[in-house]
Design goal:
Order of helices and strands: HHH
Radius of gyration: 18 Å
Strand content: under 5%
Number of strands: 0
Largest sheet: none
Distance between the termini: 43 Å
Number of helices: 3
Length: 112
């Protein structure tokens, strides 16, 4: 419960800043679509993450039944597989923070 609460607080604290940064990079006529896409991307990411970890858990023994041993084995691998994804997210957040003050570009060296 404490870990879930801490995670929820983290999302709550950062979500406004992430949304503002994303919407700040969009043209005025694209902001309505962009603001609705933020929630859709968040929900899609949560669903994809749950599905991937569900497949991992089933491949590692949850499909045959839940025991203390299978739960311990699966828990380790879920975190091992989730760690690179978390590192990618942390790197992305760092890059988003570093871009503060820089002009947005389209990735091709041209200003957007």
């Amino acid at each position: 419960v404490a870990a879930a609460t801490l995670m929820g607080v983290g999302f709550g604290l950062c979500w406004a800043f992430i949304s503002r940064r994303i919407l700040g990079g969009l043209a005025d006529d694209e902001r309505a679509i962009g603001s609705s896409a933020i929630a859709a991307v968040q929900q899609t990411g949560a669903a994809a993450g749950a599905a991937i970890m569900g497949v991992v858990a089933n491949l590692l023994g949850f499909s045959t039944g839940l025991t203390a041993e299978s739960a311990q084995a699966v828990a380790v691998w879920v975190f091992v597989i989730g760690a690179p994804i978390a590192l990618l997210g942390a790197w992305s957040a760092w890059r988003l923070a570093q871009a503060e003050g820089e002009e947005w570009s389209d990735g091709l060296g041209r200003d957007a």
